[in-house]
Design goal:
There is one protein chain. The chain has helices at 14-24, 65-75, 94-104, 127-133, 166-172, 185-195, 223-237, 243-251, 271-277, 288-300, and strands spanning 4-10, 33-38, 53-57, 80-84, 88-90, 108-110, 113-115, 148-150, 161-165, 200-203, 208-210, 255-256, 264-265. It is an alpha/beta fold and 301 residues long. The strands form 3 sheets. The chain has an 8-stranded mixed β-sheet with strand order 3-2-1-4-9-6-10-8, sandwiched between helices. A 3-stranded mixed β-sheet has the order 5-11-7. The chain starts with a strand and ends with a helix.
């Protein structure tokens, strides 16, 4: 049986991390440890768990997601690492699903994610209740009917729920730590491992439920880091990533992202921009495509 370490990044939202720990404690195959890369000044108060929990205090003034994931992965002791965002609650077979599938394919494996509306975790929660109300993200492909399905487009990689053999992750070089703040590091890592010939694949299973929290799509609240990281990606690969977000920002009059010159921020997001892009409590997730349709209709009118 593979020894599996779980890695998560955490800043704020203590209830979400609490629920993640509870979910890991209900696994049919327990992890050998949970490593929490803490992106705030104080450690968390966490529930008792039937496995060791280590909190690594990340001394960084910015949202250094790439560096935090790398540091936590290097500290892991398991043969396999499951990377699971703090707002995800793993179903009982998530660890066992990943361990079994990584015996079949040495690559980057992505489990299923279903999204919960606001209020779903306020009382004592159950997986049956989650199953009845959770929805799939409209921008994400569903899992294969069984087994493993290779993804041929590296852009399919999202880092909220995935697993790799630790040696494969370390040999890949990990996430590029030049990406600081929100945006771009996932696509860059997908591109990196694709270039290295490491397969990216979906699996049936490995299911986690994503807990609701207010968010914006496109992420106008992370305008500066999206612009900066798009330019880091372009300097490295010769073209920009996060094009749908930049397109939405341009329609809103926030940026000029004409090709062949640096992206210019034209103004700061205002209350109207936040209202347009903000996720409501009844929405399990926010969606950039919906906002773009609204903006394009305005332009056409």
């Amino acid at each position: 049986m593979n020894a599996v370490s779980v890695v998560t990044l955490a800043g704020g939202r203590p209830d979400h991390l609490h629920n993640l720990v509870l979910g890991l404690g209900r696994q049919t195959q327990l992890p050998v440890e949970l490593i929490v890369a803490v992106l705030q000044t104080e450690p968390y108060v966490l529930p008792d768990a039937p496995f060791p929990v280590r909190q690594m205090m990340m001394a960084t003034p910015e949202l250094a997601l790439a560096a935090a994931r790398n540091a936590a992965a290097r500290a892991a002791t398991g043969d396999t690492i499951v990377f699971l965002d703090m707002d995800c609650i793993p179903t009982p077979t998530l660890i066992a699903d990943y361990a079994r599938r990584l015996d079949e394919l040495d690559g980057l494996l992505m489990g299923e994610v279903m999204y919960l509306p606001g209020g779903a975790t306020q009382a004592a929660w159950s997986y049956d209740a989650f199953e009845a109300i959770a929805v799939r993200h409209s921008d994400r492909q569903g899992p294969p009917a069984e087994g493993i399905q290779i993804c041929t487009d590296y852009r399919c990689f999202w880092s909220l729920n995935f697993a790799m053999r630790r040696a494969t992750f370390i040999d890949s070089g990990g996430f590029d730590e030049r990406y600081v703040g929100y945006g771009g590091e996932d696509t860059d890592y997908g591109k990196t491992i694709d270039q290295a010939g490491i397969p990216i694949a979906w699996i049936k299973g490995g299911l986690a439920y994503h807990q609701y929290h207010p968010h914006h799509m496109p992420p106008v609240h992370h305008l500066d880091s999206v612009v900066r990281n798009a330019e880091v990606f372009e300097a490295k690969w010769g073209y920009r990533t996060m094009g749908h977000w930049l397109h939405a920002f341009a329609l809103m009059g926030l940026v000029d992202h004409a090709p062949g010159r640096p992206i210019r921020i034209l103004r700061r997001p205002d209350s109207d921009d936040l209202a347009l892009t903000g996720q409501q409590s009844h929405q399990p997730y926010a969606n950039t495509a919906t906002v773009i349709r609204i903006l394009e209709a305005r332009v056409a009118a």
